[in-house]
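Predict the 3D structure for this chain.
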Amino acid sequence: MVYAHENGRPYPPQLMDVLAPKGWDETVDVIVQFREGTDDGDRALLERLGLQLVHQWSGVDACHVRGPVGAVWRLVDSGSTWYVEPVLPLVLDMEVGTRVINASKVWSTYVQQSLGTASEPIDGRGVTCVVVDTGIDASHPDLDYGTKTLFNLRSDSGDGPYYEIENSDLGYGHGTHVAGTVAGNGDASAGARRGVAPGANLIGITIDTDNSAGYINAMDWIWTNSRPGNNPHNIRLHTNSWHSTVEEYDPQKALIVLINAISFENNVVSTWSAGNDGRQDPEGNELTTSGQGNTPVGIMCAAYERDGSGVAEFSSRGKRGDTHTYPDVGAPGVQIWSCSARRTIISGGSYVGGNENPYYLAISGTSMSTPHVAGLVALLWQAAPSLKISDKHEDHSGDPGDWFDRDDTRIHEIEWIIEATATYLEGKGLGMNG
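Done. Predicted structure below.
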């Protein structure tokens, strides 16, 4: 696997936060990476300690383990583990257009080819984006199942086996809204509310907001199904409008190992929401951005006003002076209209609030800005399919240590292009690229 580094910590601070308040015999779920990979001796150790091996992944050498708090601490003290982290709940980065990011101009743009011919219109066609979220209601006219949304995957146990289902967004509606912004075809609005990359395809993977192990399972599926030579759907990106931690980059965590593997091994781009804690800390005195978004090779997205005039007040800024914690880019994230799933928490609240449109609703958050950037990534992949990881490193201020010598701190050429062509906006308290 890739890019874990030895820093002497057998577990992150969150493990103590989760385990300390619990009784010795209370059951907890953790993610375990053994020092020499998971072998028969490690499985026997888990059994002796009274711990259940719930699931083992292939893209990262890690296991989902369940058992008593006391047994988990004995496992940590055994000397056999490389890293033990808690399974955490996940936060959907929802606060309660295409024209601004110039997508509508790109749709009528063609790439000049040899012999004077031109490419098909740049609208994302031929590119597939995996939406890792609450699911996609592909019965929506903008998200047709089998053609626009190739398929949806859902698991009843988080990290158990997936099954296909047309409407996998059964509780929230968050993922359907995200999917519509990425690549909805606009059929229910005569094209007025199409997504940023209306020609792209979608795959939906449903995750359980109570279980971060399910997110590792989703990343494991993406890694397996986007391998060079085994990528039949041309998966070029995945988008994630959620986070499980607020922290700096921690390459030892199993989820981060997989995020890196997907990008560095498979050349697949990821987009991440920054978080919605800007109101609590507009001056950037504390770190408020997503731990997953702070992965250097990922593109972390701030939210701008709907017209792109400034940074939304709720958008997390990063810690002042620590540029490696700043969002990479921004996009509209305030009152964004997109697809509405049927009979969900979000759609129900919208209709109570007076929205009478059965197909679309408007919500805000960095959850809404992130799929704008994902759609832009799809457009770039269609226009320039040879793009790859660059030699440029993520920005870092202060004492960088070995930051600029490490492979895993490099960014993708797509991020570099987006940042180089973006308009710089001043956020309250500190500036961010936009």
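The radius of gyration is 21 Å.
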